[in-house]
Amino acid sequence: MTDLERALADIAEVRERLGHVQRFKGYSGFAAAMSGAFAVAAGVLQLAVVPRVANAHEGHLYFAIWFACCAASILINYGAIAHWYVNDASARDRWQTATVGLAILPALVLGASLSFALLRANLYAFMPGVWFGCYGVGLLASRTMLPRNVVFIAAAFMLAGMGLLFVPAGIALAWWILPCGFGLGQLAIGACIMRERTVRR
Description:
Elements (H helix, E strand, L loop, with lengths): L2 H20 L6 H21 L6 H32 L3 H30 L6 H15 L8 H15 L4 H4 L4 H24 L1
Helix pairs in contact: 2-3, 2-8, 3-4, 4-5, 5-6, 6-8
């Protein structure tokens, strides 16, 4: 190995260690997986209650189901972060909590604002694209504090969101779209977080 190759290897090792130091420890793999389970359950509920959206009443039911799912996911994930913050966080970790919150907050606020604007205009078919896209952007904004593989999941969310904005309403609002995306995506994120914690030990 030449001096240059040795120096590059050292730099790569330093970057890897810095990446591990930057990772936010407050994320819960279990909470992420549970939010994925919520999405699957909401998809089943949509199939039973409003399998297709053909009018304003059905559109409001669709929105209500997925808004409740989103609220439950936010509660369990931020509840896990709050529990960790109170019981396990160091001073540096507490500073990271604020950084993580600010990184993903603009995407969440934008997603919520666009959702209510689309609801008001009865443009339900655009909601899944907005939800996927905004969530993907939020994950990418906080990518340095997440396991490395989550970046690929975040990119998939964003690309799926862009694609869903251009598909027919029957596909965008199908009962299986959000469970496949958010259900499988959140389960995968939960698995990445759990795997990284296991490797660190």
